[in-house]
């Protein structure tokens, strides 16, 4: 990664230019940097940006210059998945977010006239400014700190949406959350918001437990020391109603699955390396358990992001407790902190 001065296109009719106040670092940024996910180079990464609208195209009607916005991933906006409120299921979303250009093949960034690929996840927010389509911007309510609010665009809705939209936990129900990074902590917060009576957080890093309790965990398990499945069954006889696998570690999925009661549901949100095949206990599945995946919280960003902002206003989603800010020039240090887990959510301030 290097910090360079680039030229940004003027906005086309439905596009906006946003001055970035802060951008979270998400594990997908690391996956692209490491070549585990394809992306054309040279490129600007970053996909948890928030900032202020600085310029709008001639046909923009959803936001105005000066609005504070959180940016999300891209989607077509017109397929059945998008129109039913789950744009993460859009069949065109992977292409839109990973091609590095507009639909017509043009780039939004250049360096001395040479093309640079922007629009990473329809953002490229490791920057002072970005250009995107207006439909990927969500206006932010007052109060919430703009420099940290970009985290509401990817990792946090991924975890919170898995609980709110997929588990749909009822008050009094029980849930186990494996992996207490930003995604898992957001799932913990959503479980508390949903009125779950028992919220069990599991991680290999005991340094995460105090934070998990601050987000709402009632119990924590050190997976490096204790048997996760046995301990969860000790805490909740018969198993939990729901489990979230947010660690991305292969063995953790079967542990999450075995932690649920015979009619429980396990939701996979942790991204294991592409090509990973999971093993699931056959009898546990036969008894009636449900296993499903969930991308981006199965949510419409313009519905879920304002909900998450209200949770922050109520003190139920303290993103400032999980975030550590770095200057954009310290991007290598921030990426290293994300990779080794010493920081839960690094946020770059341009
Ligand atoms: Zn992400
Ligand atoms: Zn679509």
Essential attributes:
350 residues, alpha/beta, Quinone Oxidoreductase, Chain A, domain 1, Rossmann fold, 2 domains, seven-stranded mixed β-sheet, six-stranded parallel β-sheet, 13 helices, 29% helix, 23% strand, binds zinc ion, GroES-like_sf, NAD(P)-dependent alcohol dehydrogenase, ADH-like_C
Explain what this protein looks like in three dimensions.
- This protein is of the alpha/beta class.
- The chain has two domains: 7-153 and 318-349, Medium-chain alcohol dehydrogenases, catalytic domain (Quinone Oxidoreductase, Chain A, domain 1, Alpha-Beta Complex); 162-295, Rossmann fold.
- Helices cover 29% and strands 23% of the residues.
- The protein has helices spanning 27-33, 80-83, 93-98, 146-149, 155-167, 182-193, 209-215, 228-235, 250-259, 282-286, 301-313, 319-322, 331-340, and strands at 7-8, 15-24, 49-56, 68-71, 109-111, 114-116, 129-133, 137-139, 174-178, 198-203, 219-222, 240-245, 260-268, 290-293, 323-327, 345-349.
- The strands form three sheets. Strands 2, 3, 4, 7, 8, 15 and 16 form a seven-stranded mixed beta sheet that branches.
- β9 (174-178), α6 (182-193) and β10 (198-203) form a beta-alpha-beta unit.
- α5 (155-167) packs parallel to α6 (182-193), α5 packs across α11 (301-313) and α8 packs parallel to α9.
- The radius of gyration is 20 Å and the shape is globular.
- The mean pLDDT is 96.
- One zinc ion binds next to loops.
- The site of one zinc ion (ZN) has 8 residues, from α2.
């Amino acid at each position: 990664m290097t910090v360079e001065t680039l030229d940004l296109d003027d906005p086309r009719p439905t596009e906006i230019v946003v001055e970035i106040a802060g951008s979270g670092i998400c594990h997908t940024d690391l996956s692209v940097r490491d070549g585990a996910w394809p992306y054309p180079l040279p490129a600007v990464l970053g996909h948890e940006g928030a900032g202020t609208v600085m310029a709008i195209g001639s046909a923009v009607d959803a936001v105005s210059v000066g609005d504070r916005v959180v940016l999300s991933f891209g989607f077509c906006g017109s397929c059945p998945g998008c129109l039913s409120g789950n744009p993460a299921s859009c069949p065109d979303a992977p292409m839109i977010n990973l091609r590095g250009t507009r639909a017509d093949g043009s780039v939004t960034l250049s360096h001395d006239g040479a093309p640079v690929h922007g629009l990473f996840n329809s953002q490229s927010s490791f920057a002072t400014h970005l250009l995107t389509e207006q439909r990927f911007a969500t206006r932010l309510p007052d109060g919430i700190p703009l420099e940290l609010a970009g985290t509401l665009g990817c990792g946090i809705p991924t975890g919170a949406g898995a609980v709110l939209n997929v588990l749909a936990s009822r008050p009094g129900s029980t849930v186990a959350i494996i992996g207490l990074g930003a995604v898992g902590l957001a799932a913990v917060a959503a479980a508390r918001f949903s009125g779950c009576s028992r919220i069990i957080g599991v991680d290999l890093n005991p340094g995460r437990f105090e934070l998990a309790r601050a987000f709402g965990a009632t119990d924590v398990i050190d997976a490096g020391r204790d048997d996760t499945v046995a301990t969860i069954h000790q805490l909740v006889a018969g198993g939990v109603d729901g489990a979230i696998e947010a660690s991305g570690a292969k063995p953790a999925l079967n542990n999450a699955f075995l932690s649920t009661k015979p009619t429980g549901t396990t939701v996979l949100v942790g991204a294991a390396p592409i090509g990973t095949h999971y093993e699931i206990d056959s009898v546990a599945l036969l008894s009636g358990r449900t296993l499903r995946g969930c991308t981006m919280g199965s949510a419409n960003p313009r519905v879920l992001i304002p909900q998450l902002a209200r949770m922050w206003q109520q003190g139920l989603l303290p993103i400032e407790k999980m975030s550590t800010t770095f200057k954009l020039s310290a991007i290598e240090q921030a990426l290293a902190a994300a990779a080794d887990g010493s920081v839960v959510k690094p946020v770059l301030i341009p």
